[in-house]
């Protein structure tokens, strides 16, 4: 039972990180209608900047404070230089151009930080464990990720629902031309949204640093999973992203933890482990295929 | 259909060059170039297959490497069972491994076609971005499946002891292999030209341009798209069988998503919906890769922005540049 609780928490933690990435993706997709494969590069840049700063200053907070604006600046620069021209293009063009950007950023990071993976320590003030229920210690850092992710989700909800910026974002998602015609500087709004998405991606990257290795190409696997989340949740819907992210996080984590054991009940241990691991890594894609077969526009189809 | 002068000149020139390439480069003492050219042709073939669904059917598949990699794995797995003397399947019927190209390569095509059938049945229910993502998802599924298959090398991949046996042809000889691949590419191009001009091809283009109208005209559009998807999968499987023979090695990286991206790039770079576009695209992309990687280790730093520029400013790809010449001449 305690094991299940721990794995559920791990699943939530993964889900929250995926949500941070997926929120930016789905906003950019819903409002600018842009498929941005290079979103994972911003996650990577966030992680590398933070790892670099932590190595010099030995302070996780400084690393975080450096990474967020750095990624936002890079994101906005990319938007202004290249991506802005792609908003009216087909998805195919966008996929290709941002694929090119991934190659560029991966190589750039390799030149700047070298080909080897960096390691980031868990900040010492979060290196303890917390007993949520007696007898079940859980790493405080992972718990902190869940808390931060929950707070960001709340913040985004407030931003989108109760601020002028959020109103413009929602209006932009349903009718771009109209918002422009009403005198809103739509270009600046787009750049701003892009910067916000980049910052969320970097936040995910920084928090991923101490858990996974900080290495070139770290953005792509997680980006693909984030796209799965966006598609499951329904393109353009932040709420859908949250539900999708938690669902994907839980399915992936619980699948990896328990599928092999489950198969051992009726298969030889060797086969069971192999089959269980294979199915576990395929589980989220099966989930996505099932959701799309059932609701071809995702769980929470946004307007438009 | 008489083709304009420039296009015809380019096509015949390219054909002569491709036929004369092995003796030519061997005369120059650059034998390795035969291998490079074979690789280019194999990628041209997989590009041709993607072009059928992407260029003519309007289906943006971001998972084409799945069929490519599956074909490669079929050849490698059959060869491994043959060398180890263990049957592949013992129940309900015994299927032995084989190294014969006559069996393994068609098997690769059949397996890839079946995969395409299953994936197509689900993926073609969606469209637009959802289609892009669901094809990608299926490719990822297969990628992780092969990573977890420890019996077949898992993440490290699988080496072939030799190229497939193909009757009188000695595939271990790079020149023989080159001409065989060239033959496949020419055959595929010929079939594709016929196909595109046929009723089926016209219907497919109609679906690309306006699916709803084609439905209203009574065309079973889903079946048309599925048929094209399966054909493209089969040809991609053949390309995979060829690449497994060329490198004598397969690994999950053959079907990772970057590979799918590269195949897309080859088609777009060459010119979507142009029969010969993917060949031009494969030549350009792989040669660019060769040249840049010889020049600097950090060649991707250059390649990435080039891709962005191509997308932004060179719509229609290389082939449209060639055809642009024809308006002045013809």
Topology:
The complex is a heterodimer of chains A (304) and B (330).
Chain A: H1 2-32, H2 39-57, H3 60-81, H4 91-113, E1 129-131, E2 137-139, H5 140-162, H6 164-174, H7 176-181, H8 186-208, H9 219-233, H10 238-264, H11 269-294
Antiparallel strand pairs in A: 1-2
Chain B: H1 5-27, H2 32-56, H3 65-84, H4 101-123, H5 128-148, E1 158-159, H6 174-197, H7 199-209, H8 211-216, H9 221-247, E2 249-250, H10 257-270, H11 277-295, H12 300-313, H13 317-329
Antiparallel strand pairs in B: 1-2
Helix pairs in contact in B: 1-13, 2-6, 2-9, 2-10, 2-11, 3-4, 3-5, 3-9, 4-9, 6-7, 7-9, 10-11, 10-13
Any key phrases for this structure?
heterodimer; A: 304 residues; mainly alpha; ABC transporter involved in vitamin B12 uptake, BtuC; two-stranded antiparallel sheet; 2% strand; B: 330 residues; two-stranded antiparallel ribbon; 13 helices
Give a nutshell description of this structure.
The complex is a heterodimer of chains A (304) and B (330). By secondary structure, chain A is mainly alpha-helical.
How would you portray this structure in words?
The complex is a heterodimer of chains A (304) and B (330). By secondary structure, chain A is mainly alpha-helical. Chain A has one domain: ABC transporter involved in vitamin B12 uptake, BtuC (Orthogonal Bundle). Helix content of chain A is 74%, strand content 2%. Chain A contains eleven helices and two strands; from the N terminus they run H-H-H-H-E-E-H-H-H-H-H-H-H. Chain A has helices at residues 2-32, 39-57, 60-81, 91-113, 140-162, 164-174, 176-181, 186-208, 219-233, 238-264, 269-294; strands spanning 129-131, 137-139. In chain A, helix 2 packs across helix 8 (186-208) and helix 9 crosses helix 11 (269-294). Chain A is globular and about 65 Å long. Chain B contains 13 helices and two strands, in the order H-H-H-H-H-E-H-H-H-H-E-H-H-H-H. With 330 residues, chain B is mainly alpha-helical. Chain B has a domain at 33-257. Chain B has a two-stranded antiparallel sheet with strand order 1-2. Chains A and B meet through helix 4, helix 9 and helix 11 of A and helix 5, helix 10 and helix 12 of B.
